[in-house]
Amino acid sequence: MNRKIAFVGLGNMGGPMAANLVKAGYAVTGFDPSPAACEQAVEKGVVLAGSAAEAAAGAEAVITMLPTGDHVLDVYLGRRGGAPLLEAVPTGALLIDCSTIAVQDARTAAGHAVEAGHRAIDAPVSGGVVGAAAGTLTFMVGADEADIDEARTILEPMAGRVVHCGGVGAGQAAKICNNMILGISMIAVSEAFVLGERLGLTHEALFDVASTASGQCWALTTNCPVPGPVPASPANRDYAPGFASPLMAKDLALAMKAADATLTDVRVGRLATDLYRDFAVGSGRTRDFSAIIEQVRQEPFEPTQEVTR
Ligand code: NAD
C-alpha cells in the first residue's frame, strides 16, 4: 500500500508540490477550501478530503502550504471551527509546514504539535511556482536532528535542495534573512540602473561591468530589472511574476517582525520594507518584485541635502 501523506493548502505552490508527491508514488489526500485549487489537484491525482482533519486521518506525515501563520495555527488547532488537525492525525506523525510564516508562529505551531504527541518541522521554500512544478524547490528546514532524514525522504520529490538550517524555526529564519537581502539588493540594482540611465549609460554597459564586478548579485544576474541583459528575467515580459511584489512585501514584514523581537538594527531593511509595502498595494500588486524599478524611475526628485558641486 502506498504511504499516505496529507496536503493542506493546494494553491499556486501547494498544488504542484502535491502533484510531485503523487508522481513519486505517495497516496496524497488533500484539502483546500478553494474549488479551483481542488479541481486542479484532483486532475493530478490528489484525493480530496472534506476538511484538513479528515485529510490528516491515517497519514504518516502532513504538509501545510498556507498563506500565513494564522492559517497554520487555525488548521492545527481547529480555531475556525472543524476538528483540530492535531487531534485527527495519528500520534507521532511528522508535521511539515512549508508556508512562509513568522519564526515565532513556526515555534508556536511546532510546540502545539509536540504537546499533542507529534513531531513538527518548518520547511519554507524558495524557487517559486516554477520550482514547485519542476520539483526543484530549495527547502530551508528547521528540525531536530532525529527528524531530518525522514523529512528529506518526504521532501525529495519536490526538492532541488534540502538545507538543514538548525532547530525548529531556523528554516523560517533563513528564509526571511535571505529575502531581506533580496529585497534590499533589488532596490539597489534598480536605483543603479536608473542613475545609469540619467548619466547616459546603456543598460548593457552597466550590466557588463556590474555582473562581473563587485555589484554582482542574483537581483542583477538572474532577475535583472531592465529588459535585455537577462532574457529570462520578468522585465522581458512586462514584469509578469516571477516572485510577486506582495509576497516580497510579506516576507520583508516578517523580517521586520523578527528584527523588532530581537532588537536588531535593520535600517536599510526597514526602508526596503516600506517601499515594497507601498508598491505591493499600488502599481506592483500583480507584478514581479523587480518592477519596483518603475517606481524608482517615477519618484519625483526632491533632494533632501544640498547637492555638492
Ligand atoms: P496561494 O494563495 O496560491 O495558496 C494558498 C492556498 O491555501 C489557497 O488555495 C487557499 O485556498 C488555501 N487555504 C487557505 N486557508 C486554508 C485552510 N484553512 N485550509 C486549507 N487550505 C487553505 O499561495 P501560494 O503562492 O501557494 O503560497 C503559499 C505559501 O508559500 C505562502 O506562505 C507563501 O508566502 C509561500 N511561498 C510562495 C511562493 C510563490 O512564489 N508563490 C514562493 C515561496 C513561498
From TrEMBL:
Keywords, sorted A to Z: Branched-chain amino acid catabolism, NAD, Oxidoreductase
Molecular functions (GO terms): 3-hydroxyisobutyrate dehydrogenase activity
Keyword Chaperone listed: no
Pfam family, one: NAD_binding_2
Pathway connected to this protein: Amino-acid degradation; L-valine degradation
Domain 3-hydroxyisobutyrate dehydrogenase-like NAD-binding: 169-294
Enzyme Commission identifier(s): 1.1.1.31
Keyword Transcription regulation included in the entry's annotation: no
Reaction it catalyzes: 3-hydroxy-2-methylpropanoate + NAD(+) = 2-methyl-3-oxopropanoate + NADH + H(+)
Xref: SUPFAM superfamilies: 6-phosphogluconate dehydrogenase C-terminal domain-like, NAD(P)-binding Rossmann-fold domains
Annotated 6-phosphogluconate dehydrogenase NADP-binding domain residues: 4-166
PANTHER family associated with the record: 3-HYDROXYISOBUTYRATE DEHYDROGENASE, MITOCHONDRIAL, 3-HYDROXYISOBUTYRATE DEHYDROGENASE-RELATED
Protein family (similarity comment): Belongs to the HIBADH-related family.
Protein name: 3-hydroxyisobutyrate dehydrogenase
Naturally occurring in which organism (per UniProt): Streptomyces hirsutus
